[in-house]
Amino acid sequence: MRKLGKNKLFALLLVMMFAVGVMAGCGNQANQEPEKTPTEQVTPTPDNPKLKLATTTSTQDSGLLDVLKPEFEKDTGYNLEIIAVGTGAAIELGKKGDVDVLLVHSRKAEDEFVAAGYGVNRKDVMYNDFLIVGPENDPAGIKGEKDIVVAMKKIVDAKATFVSRGDDSGTHKKEKSVWDKAGITPKGDWYKSVGKGMGDTFRMANELKAYTLIDRATFLSLKDKYQLVPAVEGDASLLNPYGVIAISKDKYPNTNFEGANAFIDWMTSEKGQKMIGEYGVDKYGQQLFVPDAK
Amino acid sequence: MDVIWQGLKEGFLLIIAMDPELVQITLLSIQVSVSALLLAAIMGIPLGTVLALKEFPGRKTLLNITYTFMGLPPVLAGLLVFLFLSTSGPFGYFQLMFTPTAMITAQVLLGFPIVCGLTARAVMAQPQEVFDTAATLGATRRQVSWAIIRESRMGIIAALTTALGRLIAEVGAVMMVGGNIKGETRVLTTSIVLETRMGNDSSALAIGMVLLLIAFLIMLLILSLEKRTFKDERRIQIV
User: Fold this and answer.
1) Are A192 and B184 within 8 A, CB to CB?
2) Which of A40, A58, A204, B170 is the most exposed, fewest CB within 10 Å of its CB?
3) Parallel, antiparallel, or unpaired for β A239-247 and A119-134?
4) Which CATH number do you get for residue A102?
5) What phi, psi does A68 have (nearest 5°)?
6) What is the CATH number that goes with domain B2-226?
């Protein structure tokens, strides 16, 4: 009996230690002060400066957020923490209330998210487009093809290697919608579902001399490192609109709702939109994102 | 808590249902890690013994290098193998990128220093008596070495279990050189990463359970070697 008592005591002690640890962790987060940088303009100090954004790898990999983040922080006083994952995972984070605001690109999933009551104040922000890239020697003979359906059919006929994100991301969803449109269920040795982010998928496609669907921003930022070239671009079904959504205060009262709205307002403001439109022009010689907030 | 319960439930159901995709992923995991372990053992045990027993210049340095590489980060091992096997790399001609062979190569790189280093330590820990006894009984040099390896088998088995634990649980290297291609190079650990990234936490947890179960079974197998060899031997008794 005495031994059992000891074990119980030990278990209780463990649980208590864990609880204290968790509370300490939360306390630290709540107490975090925003970094104060000396700027000429007066930066507001919001009550809860910590703002968590879940977004897609494409906005991060393209470097757009690196440019927007400091300006947004300077203008609003929030401290933006960026979690870059696939759209599927970003929306999942939103559903769990682990983040405050989303910047994603999968219109259907976004609408479902809002309809289910998880998100509010959804706004269009910008769009870019996807393109099919492939090896220079173009085994499927699709270079310059304008109709995406024809191109996809040719890839299947040639059994040319095609690398798919396969991770339920916005890009993967776009790819699936393109296959659907062509009436094809991709299957076979030539179709490689790799379950990775855009940068890694592009790298694998390059290594395998394969075709893949990629967003323009990521392509432009990485194209000098790899040998794949654009094969199909310009089809209307390859447009890629981004939306920004605040996590509902009713569902998760502890999220930073004010911060989320400040982010949405800033992204759709004249200044935010102008910065989005100008991003990449000096570096890549072309616009990466087209602002389209209404 | 919901996710955890659901994950446990899902894991249980997954194991019972023997989902063909999961079976294939599991078999590939075993194939890759066990092959890598065997290769690491074939090279690591003899080399570890030599490092422990033979005096030669640079021995200490080699030992230290081995110990350092025991902590080789898996992604770094993956990157090195990637650079060598990539189409633009020195072995690009063989087209080995994103194949199980590439994954095994990277894991050998991780497992070998562990087997080699821990074997060396186990052999060095043998008392002088083992050598003296064998030598007195008229053993040749080769026979003496063999006797010492036999006496060190407990430590060598520990080296193997440690290495296996690292290999079967490792994700950085197999992700990089295997590429996580569905049906070709996807293994348990890379599936967990993918499911997590897709927000399917309970599926990720379920696959994690399968991984633990497999690790447990292989460990049992390795440890059964130990039980057999040590059956009749006296162990330290605390009185």
Assistant:
1) yes
2) A40
3) antiparallel
4) 3.40.190.10
5) -75, -35
6) 1.10.3720.10
Domain that residue A104 falls in: 50-128+240-291
Residues A194 and A217 both lie in one domain: yes
Kindly identify which residue of chain B lies nearest to residue A188, measuring between CA atoms: B183
Q: What's the domain count of chain A?
A: 2
- Which chain A residues have any C-beta within 8 angstroms of a chain B C-beta? 85-86, 88-89, 91-93, 95, 166-168, 192-197, 204, 207-209
pTM of the full structure = 0.73
Among A47, A1, A112, A3, which residue's Cα sits nearest to residue A262? A47
Mark yes or no for CB contact B198/A93 under 8 Å.
no
Which chain A residues touch B179 with a CB distance below 8 Å? 192, 194, 196, 204
In a domain, A7, yes or no: no
Same domain, A133 and A111: no
The most distant pair of C-alpha atoms in chain B lies apart, rounded to whole Å, by 68
Note whether A136 and A224 are same-domain residues.
yes
- Domains of chain B, by residue range, sit at 2-226
Structural domain includes residue A120: yes
Domain assignment present for residue A244? The answer is: yes
Determine the 3-state secondary structure of A121 from DSSP: strand
What's the mean pLDDT when you consider all of chain A? 87
Q: Give dist(CA B86, CA B180) in Å, integer.
A: 16
- Cα distance from A166 to chain B (closest Cα, Å)? 9
List alpha helices for chain B, DSSP H. Answer: 2-17, 20-53, 59-69, 74-85, 100-124, 128-136, 141-151, 153-169, 172-178, 188-197, 201-230
User: Do strands A101-104 and A50-56 pair parallel, antiparallel, or not at all (unpaired)?
Assistant: parallel
User: Whole-angstrom Cα distance, residue A152 to residue A158?
Assistant: 10
Question: Cα distance from A71 to chain B (closest Cα, Å)?
Answer: 29
A contact test, residue of B180, B195, B207 with most A CBs within 10 A: B180
d(C-alpha A231, C-alpha A205), whole Å: 14
Report ipTM for this prediction. Answer: 0.73
pLDDT digits (tens, 9 = 90+) for A93-142: 899 888 999 999 888 899 999 999 999 999 999 998 999 999 999 999 99
Half-sphere exposure of residue B56: CA atoms within 13 angstroms, side-chain side: 8
